[in-house]
């Protein structure tokens, strides 16, 4: 996968962009660099990258507007790499459609691992794989079935909706607001206690140790994601 991946980096810090380029090339990725929002938007339109690494503080605008622009026409993975570390910044980016968020300073091994997960998710989507498998868990989104250790798991309608929404994009964080809107409706976006209760019940059905989940992972203060690997 990595030898074919074209990664667009939108980053105005020269030192960080050089470090990213050398690290990604050493791992077999092809790279393109933009130092402004305008250049990033142009390269995205012309070159059609496989994945984007996006800074938010750009000289000519906020990187969040790039996420909005891309999501009009594309579902390619967007990994935000930013010095902004507030919980609300992360929530905003995930709500707009970012796939992942890594705060600066960052470790290159963690960055490479997150790129790998995002590319795997993207490849699964492009293959239109309707069956998600991870360890002993199998989710068939077409036939609306869930197997654990090859045995059917009986879920409530709400648990089905929550799990299948997460399974649409394994590895991607879904915010509390997104999950509440999709499953309960927009009038319930502030009722996070509903979400905690049903996620707890869902984990109790799927996880060997609900306190240390393997499948349904929490992004503290932000939302949930289905483990991709």
Written account of the structure:
By secondary structure, the protein is α/β, with parallel strands linked by helices. The protein has 2 domains: 6-126, Rossmann fold (3-Layer(aba) Sandwich), CATH 3.40.50; 131-226, Winged helix-like DNA-binding domain superfamily/Winged helix DNA-binding domain (Arc Repressor Mutant, subunit A, Orthogonal Bundle). The protein contains 8 helices and 14 strands. The chain has helices spanning 14-26, 37-47, 64-71, 87-96, 108-126, 157-168, 176-183, 192-206, and strands spanning 6-10, 30-34, 51-54, 57-58, 61-62, 78-82, 100-103, 131-134, 137-140, 145-148, 151-152, 174-175, 216-219, 223-226. Helix 6 (157-168) crosses helix 8. The chain starts with 5 loop residues before the first strand and ends with a strand.
What attributes does this structure have?
single chain, 229 residues, alpha/beta, Rossmann fold, Arc Repressor Mutant, subunit A, 5-stranded parallel beta sheet, 4-stranded antiparallel beta sheet, 8 helices, 14 strands, 22% strand, globular
